[in-house]
Amino acid sequence: MTSINTETGEYNGNEGRSPRFTFWVFFLMCSVITLKASVEVKNDMEETNGASKWAITCSAVTFTVTALVTMLHLAPVYSSLIVGTKVEGLIIIILAGFWAATVSIVTNTSNELGVVKSDTNQVSNGNLYYFSWAGFVNSILLLVSYMKSSFGIDLVDEIHGRGARLMYWAGMLASTLVVVGSSARVFIEDCGETSDFPESYCTRTKLAIAVGTIGAVLSIVVVGLKLCLSSAPFTVEFVSATLLTVLNAFGVAYITSNSGPGRAIGNLYYFTWSSFLLSAYLSVDCFDTSKNNEATTDTETNEETNEKQENDIPVGELDEEEAQR
Asked: How far is the C-alpha of 194 from the C-alpha of 197, rounded, in Å?
């Protein structure tokens, strides 16, 4: 509720409004844009499919819920009914599930919503494609914020506390899983016995599956070690990051080339590049850490040597008179 700060004399007009207010407003915007784009795509279809109905239903439900939550935030008297309550947490979890399914449906070329199945499998509706992803990411941020404010669980601090670079390894795991899923779907749809695509296309699709699988396995190993031991053996992490950098460099070169399955703008294109950039960053950061550790070790060794040399300096022969005392 509104009040006046007795110490500063300032008017607290936003008291009762949660730190998630901005997220809810952005979620409302994403749902409006996705709803409009879904309706337009459905109207352009000769035959409506279930995927388009789901996209419309999900975005319409999200629009209704987020509009209601936003209005409650704007009225401090009623904000206590939703802010930080179990009801808010339940709504966030349900919406996160809805939008995870929506992203999967919208980016599936066979549904012909955000991405149209063609020789290039290119994005056909940018608003539907990008804002479905934006809505899903926003729902995850809402969940993280809710857990922090309601249960005192700061996931970001917890991740940092579990070891350096854990956040990036988790991102690497998510990115490689998308690469595996996208490339596997392309292989199933385009590389069957009656495929019209050239052999090089299917070979590069297999490469995408292999690179993504190796990346996912190594990421799981490193993340698991960091979560269980608070820090993975540095050699394992450094070697894994370097190997992934090399593999993803080949992946970017062949998968996103003109003859590759990720040549068009879409999930496979974006997350192939994302995997390469993350692995390169991890390799460079591990290399810097290694050099810093060597520099620290050399400094400590030099300090110990200097201290030993100072202790070994001869005091000189004492005066005979002083020696007899």
From this structure: 9
Average confidence (pLDDT) per 10 residues, the chain, 325 residues: 40 54 90 89 79 86 89 78 82 89 82 69 79 89 79 56 73 89 85 78 91 92 79 82 94 89 84 93 88 64 57 50 49
Given a contact cutoff of 8 angstroms between Cβ atoms, the answer to whether 67 and 88 are in contact is no
What's the farthest any 2 CA atoms get from each other in the chain?
A: 115
Rounded to 5 degrees, what are φ and ψ at 277? -65, -40
* Residue 11: its H or E element: strand 11-12
Which one, of 151, 128, 115, 162, lies nearest residue 269 by Cα? 115
User: Considering only CA atoms, which of 194, 169, 121, 177 is closest in space to residue 286?
Assistant: 169
Sole residue written with tokens 């506390």: 161
Question: Which spans in the chain are helix H?
Answer: 21-44, 50-74, 76-79, 86-106, 126-151, 155-161, 166-190, 199-229, 234-255, 267-311, 320-323
Helix (H, G, I), strand (E, B) or coil at 123: strand
Q: Give the whole-angstrom CA distance, residue 10 versus residue 90.
A: 35
